[in-house]
Amino acid sequence: MTTGARRRMGVEERREQLIGVALDLFSHRSPEDVSIDEIAEAAGISRPLVYHYFPGKQQLYEAALRRAAEELSARFLEPHEGPLGARLLRVMERFFDFVDEHGPGFSALMRGGPATGAQSRTGALIDGVRQAAYDQILAHLGVPDPPPRLALVVRSWISLAETTALLWLDGRRIPRAELERQLVHDFAALAAVSAAYDERMAAVVRRILADEPADGMFAELVARLVRLAPGPHVLG
């Protein structure tokens, strides 16, 4: 039986490998619980060699967070085809795929990373993800220059999605598929309430509803709300 010599990696290739290994470890355990020795062992290299590519665990952690932020931002990319409700549901499904795959890493990213780190850099990564999501939602709505209430609705919804995902990770007591649909309905509800106060928002909502099929996501929300209404016997 013959064995080949281990292929020597270039500098960038080794750095990318270490980032991938670190991201996988940070995705399953909190950063404080992962040691450089574990990262080195998982990468199949020595501890000193890890330090050759990264000055310390914090720098490697930030590089892994940057990779996670790029992956998370990509989950909001969606073809501009079909009704908005269906598009948002697909986005939420991919968003929760990421949350499911990178639980502790997602929590660390959204909460700014370990206190020992450079908070400004991790904060900038988080802001970048939020801005990417914001830009994508506005693109789907076809409103490049949003009125103040629409900007508030979109940013509030992104914040709600983050909070919902973080709470879901703490025990996963609500079925994931239900939360994905609920978040799409939350967007519709936020937009509808804002439309009741602002004609420009009302025009946006009318355009959204005009493209929705009778069995679409937003029609489902209306049906659920109608079922909540008291019957005639209650009113009497």
Give me some keywords for this one:
12 helices, disordered N terminus, mainly alpha, 236 residues
Any idea what the shape is? elongated
Give a count of the beta strands, DSSP E runs of length 2 or more. 0
Provide the low-confidence segments as ranges.
Answer: 1-5
Measured between the Cα atoms of the first and last residue, the distance is: 88 Å
SSE order, as H and E?
HHHHHHHHHHHH
- Radius of gyration equals 22 Å
Classify the beta-strand content into a percent band: under 5%
Going by helix content, strand content and strand pairing, the class is mainly alpha
Largest sheet: none
Helix fraction by DSSP (H/I, runs of at least 4): over 70%
Mean pLDDT across the residues is 88
Topology of this structure?
Elements: H1 11-28, H2 36-43, H3 47-53, H4 57-74, H5 84-101, H6 103-110, H7 119-141, H8 148-169, H9 176-195, H10 199-210, H11 217-228, H12 232-235
Helix pairs in contact: 1-2, 1-4, 1-6, 4-7, 5-6, 5-8, 5-9, 7-8, 8-9, 9-10
Explain the overall architecture.
There is one protein chain. This protein is mainly alpha-helical. 72% of the residues lie in helices and 0% in strands. The protein has 12 helices and no strands. Helix 1 packs across helix 6, helix 4 packs parallel to helix 7 (119-141) and helix 5 (84-101) crosses helix 6 (103-110). It is elongated and about 70 Å long. The N and C termini lie far apart (88 Å).
